[in-house]
Amino acid sequence: MKVLLAEDDQLIRDGLAEILQREGYKVLQAENGESAMTLFRSESPDFVCLDIMMPKLSGYDVCKKMRSDNPRIPIIFISAKSEEIDKVVGLEMGADDYIVKPFGVKEVVARIRAVTRRCYATTTESASDGVFQMADLEIFPRELRARRGETTIELSLRDIKILRLLHEHRGQALERHTIFDRCWGEMYLTSSRTLDQHISQLRKRIEVSPNTPRIILTVHGVGYRFDG
């Protein structure tokens, strides 16, 4: 899933890009309103994170143009303008959400996941499409969630990619570089430590006993496996 991130402050843009990439999104970056519109029309992102105070074209102007091109594109405003009237104007302009700077990582992740669910909900396919089972865990990709009985577990887009890949190749030992290439993409340098750390954190959320996993099994010297 592609996200267009338009923000003129490079430090903030880099920080947001890192959060989004860690979640599993492909990030398109723009440093001003004109660049944002160019990328929007050439790359057709799935949703947009848009600063309000930008050079050349303001976020409000960009939002109008994007809404004219695609009325259904989800847009999140990210701005230092924190007055209630600013939020009201942003939402009336057609934004789906409004995040005030400075913001916390958990807040951004929660709002991005909420927009991702709305993106999936607007498709014509049934919301049940793509649901799959791993041991006693039921995974709902469109919701970015898994369920075990009455317990709901929040997942990132990358978590879903990893679990789906293991499910599709059940019984097979997948090498680390294969998982990394499929779930991180070619733009990332392979790092077994990055993958192993991610798997470790994922196990803590989805396994009944992370130290004796039933879903993501380690194949020493190779990678990981799901037996089904």
Tag the structure with descriptive keywords.
43% helix; five-stranded parallel beta sheet; 21% strand; single chain; four-stranded antiparallel beta sheet; 8 helices; Rossmann fold; Arc Repressor Mutant, subunit A; 2 domains; alpha/beta; 228 residues
Describe this structure in words.
Strand 6 and strand 7 form a beta hairpin. Helix 1 packs across helix 5 and helix 2 packs parallel to helix 3. The protein is α/β, with parallel strands linked by helices and 228 residues long. It has a 5-stranded parallel sheet, with helices on both faces. The protein folds into 2 domains: 120 residues, 3-Layer(aba) Sandwich (Rossmann fold); 69 residues, Orthogonal Bundle (Arc Repressor Mutant, subunit A), CATH 1.10.10. About 2% of the residues have low confidence.
CATH class of the largest domain reads Alpha Beta
- Our measurement of the CA-to-CA distance between the termini, rounded to an integer number of angstroms, reads 27 Å
Helical content, roughly? 40-55%
Count of DSSP-assigned helices: 8
CATH architecture of the largest domain: 3-Layer(aba) Sandwich
H/E topology pattern: EHEHEHEHEHEEEEHEHHEE
Strand content: 15-25%
Let me know the number of strands: 12
Biggest sheet architecture: 5 strands, parallel
Question: CATH topology of the largest domain, anyone?
Answer: Rossmann fold
Q: Can you give the mean pLDDT?
A: 87
Strand order of the largest sheet: 2-1-3-4-5
**Low-confidence parts lasting 5 or more residues at pLDDT below 50?**
124-128
Q: By CATH's scheme, which homologous superfamily of the largest domain applies?
A: Response regulator
Q: Looking at the structure, what is the overall shape? A: elongated
| Tally of domains | 2
Radius of gyration: 19 Å
Class from secondary-structure proportions: alpha/beta
